[in-house]
Write a structure and sequence with these properties.
The chain has 310 residues and is of the alpha/beta class. It has nine helices and eight strands. Strands 7-6-5-4-3-2-1-8 form an eight-stranded parallel β-sheet. Helix 1 runs parallel beside helix 2 and helix 5 packs parallel to helix 7.
Length: 310
């Protein structure tokens, strides 16, 4: 498997997408997941094609490629249905221009729908996207969403996702499994990783790999820094003959003070009114060292299963 990571790793210090690409390459990664989800990553504005050209130039300059992208992940509480479709079609166009084969597109949760209603709504949603981008080679991937964060746990497990894909019956539609989201769901947590991947089988085209402690706290950190059993993950991937990238989405490392969901404690010096904090946020050099360790960790995991592809 190719080892990749996400541009969100440098979300707090990379002011442009080319800068984030440069830092990822400097850490040793040759493959990248392009996150089009924040103020820097989003392809909004009249200059969105210029942004794509700048990303392409940065990839070529650094000798790296994008194996995956993540669409603007707004929901129906933040935007209209038509607005989400418009933005996602623009992201599909970006993937075409950059040669990215897969785009992760979050399912939508309309208010007041049960599981069957959510399935119906999303079949229409993905059908609209696929019909409107007819002829595109870009595959759209649903992602498992933690049941603790959704009113209806329609996409919480691999079995849920497989059932939806069977129901939707749409070409160019597959799945991305997020290990952190899977670990948030109620028992059996760790066992769910293996069963989920097996259930998805050859419909699994991408991964969002990170660790957490479950406990209903949305978190994305290094493997070995939480409770996920990565033997379960790697065993399942090998058994299904998974051919996608082993892609990290582990950006909750070396966190800035204001980063949700858990912000750093505030402190005011009790006797010095002129005290200036020195340790509020980590410097770039430490974040870069953490990124290099992330690469080494991923390579180690894959090598134990003879699955590392440079």
């Amino acid at each position: 498997m190719k080892l990749s990571t996400s541009t969100g790793d440098f979300k707090r210090v990379g002011a442009t997408m080319p800068e984030r690409i440069r830092l990822i390459a400097e850490a040793g990664f040759k493959h990248i997941n392009l996150e089009l989800t924040d103020a820097v990553g989003r392809l909004d504005g009249d200059d969105w094609k210029d942004k794509i050209a700048a990303i392409s130039a940065a990839l070529n300059e650094r000798g790296v490629d994008c194996v995956l992208a993540h669409a603007t992940c707004e929901n129906l509480n933040e935007a209209t249905y038509d607005g989400i479709v418009f933005e996602t079609l623009r992201d599909i166009s970006a993937c075409e221009a950059l040669g990215i084969p897969d785009l992760v597109v979050h399912p939508l949760y309309p208010e007041g729908k049960d599981r069957d209603g959510v399935f119906d709504f999303n079949r229409a949603f993905y059908r609209d996207l696929i019909a409107s981008s007819k002829g595109s080679p870009v595959r759209l991937l649903i992602e498992n969403m933690a049941d603790v964060e959704c009113a209806v746990p329609a996409f919480a497990t691999g079995e849920d996702m497989a059932a939806f894909l069977d129901y939707a019956k749409l070409d160019r539609l597959g799945a991305c499994w997020d290990t952190a989201h899977g670990n948030l769901n109620a028992p059996p947590r760790d066992n769910q990783q293996y069963e989920a991947i097996i259930a998805l089988g050859d419909r699994l085209f991408a991964l969002h790999v990170s660790d957490n402690f479950g406990r209903r706290l949305h978190w994305h950190t290094f493997p070995f820094n939480g409770s996920i059993n990565f033997d379960a993950v790697l065993s399942a991937l090998v058994e299904i003959g998974y051919r996608g990238a082993f892609n990290f989405e582990a950006s909750y490392i070396m966190r800035n003070a204001s980063m949700p969901p858990v912000r750093r404690n505030r402190w005011t010096h009790p006797t010095d009114p002129h005290f200036a904090p020195k340790l509020t946020d980590p410097p770039l050099e430490l974040i870069l060292q953490a990124e290099k360790l992330l690469y080494a960790t991923g390579k180690y995991l894959l090598e134990q299963y003879n699955a590392f592809e440079d």
